[in-house]
Amino acid sequence: MKKQIYLDYNATVPLLKEVKKSLIDCMDVGPLNASSIHYYGRKGKDIIDIARTNISELINTNKNNIIFTSSATEAINLLFSNFDTIVVSSVEHFAVLSSSKSDHIIPVNQHGVVDLNFLETYLKKLVKKNKKILVSVMWVNNETGIIQPIEDVVEIAKKLGCLVHCDAAQALGKIKINLEEIELDFLTLSGHKIGAPTGIGALIYNDKIDLMPQILGGGQEKGMRAGTENILGIRGFGEAAKFFVNATENNCSKVKSLRDYFQEKVKTLSPKTIFFGEKGNRVANTTLMALPEIPGDLALMKLDLESFSVSSGSACSSGKVSKSHVVSAMGYDNLASNSVRFSFPPNDSILKLENLITRKELDRLAQCWSNL
Ligand code: PLP
């Protein structure tokens, strides 16, 4: 049997060893419900508090402004349930596009970068009619890896009195996030994108802005998200955050050289390949490409048969490949059903742990791609 090669880290990062160990330790502590007054309840509270500290250190924010949720998707839904007017970019994840139900859409250019002039002109008109506007732009795109000019988005939005949310699910662990240095009001995160278990996310909020909860009940998470806390998930998220504290963009050179090596191989063996967002400012681990005559689902199946686990950036929950709204938004509608995403470990620390991807394997992958 061929060795299975996983290149779908933007979908999820395998559970880190340190995280797994911390989860087992946590399970051995005993029955943990952080709302209980007794010894075990206090233990549970302590575990949550440590995780909050670890996550706040990773993104440099106040630990009291973190609300744990079941996912980034839930965190986004919670936030958006507080706003009627939400302005989004055309390349947002469906967690944003579907839950905002927004028809205030900011286009991107051919590299997948949000059009800042359009944003400014659009907001100038919108603020005349609406008092409370939330602008939601992702930090890193999950399909292309493009890093959005989020500082500029914040500057424009703030100048016009709007609030700003950033979906940072794909930015965490790939680039440095320092909330002390950027005036964001809200940030959402997903644990499993940095090696925590699935089923844990967070909303980081500005406590000067009143938010209403979406899930009501026992008042957990300062009344913002009821339901007995997912202590294992929270613990895992906290441990993964601790691991990632030193992982910034300065720690991605090996990942980048592997990704670039693979791209060059593909270009040589398969010159018809089109790369999306290659000329933009991208994270080191992602490359999205297409062959004009090969549908993405066929490519995925053939690569899977060759033991490569990759993804179409646009797969939906049923596993069916749909047209990529991101590729369409970049002006390549004719290729929107053909794109295939290769996502490497988010940074060199994870690459080292996994130690799975060699240049020889990338040679074989590029060869398989050219034979599609
Ligand atoms: N936002 C982006 C950019 C994502 O890539 C994802 C997951 O793929 C999400 C949001 C949703 O994250 P979660 O799986 O925690 O709901």
Can you characterise this structure?
There is one protein chain. The chain is an alpha/beta fold and 372 residues long. The chain has two domains: 133 residues, Aspartate Aminotransferase, domain 1 (Alpha-Beta Complex); 230 residues, Aspartate Aminotransferase, domain 2 (3-Layer(aba) Sandwich), CATH 3.40.640.10. It contains twelve helices and twelve strands. The strands form three sheets. The chain has a seven-stranded mixed beta sheet, sandwiched between helices. Helix 4 links the parallel strand 3 and strand 4. The longest helix is centred in the N-terminal third of the chain and has 21 residues. The chain starts with a strand and ends with a helix. The model has no long low-confidence stretch (mean pLDDT 94). Bound molecules: pyridoxal-5'-phosphate (PLP). The site of pyridoxal-5'-phosphate (PLP) has 12 residues, from helix 3. The site of pyridoxal-5'-phosphate has 12 residues, from helix 3.
Helix content bin: 25-40%
- The CATH architecture of the largest domain comes to 3-Layer(aba) Sandwich
| Approximate shape | globular
Helix-and-strand structural type: alpha/beta
Overall average pLDDT: 94
User: What would you give as the CATH superfamily of the largest domain?
Assistant: Type I PLP-dependent aspartate aminotransferase-like (Major domain)
* Order of strands, widest sheet: 2-8-7-6-5-3-4
Distance between the termini: 21 Å
CATH class category label of the largest domain: Alpha Beta
> How many DSSP H or I helices?
12
CATH topology of the largest domain: Aspartate Aminotransferase, domain 2
Radius of gyration: 21 Å
User: What number of domains?
Assistant: 2
Question: SSE order in H/E notation?
Answer: EHHEHEHEHEHEEEHHEEHEHEHH
The largest pleated sheet is described as: 7 strands, mixed
Please report which band the strand proportion falls in: under 5%, 5-15%, 15-25%, 25-35%, 35-45% or over 45%.
5-15%
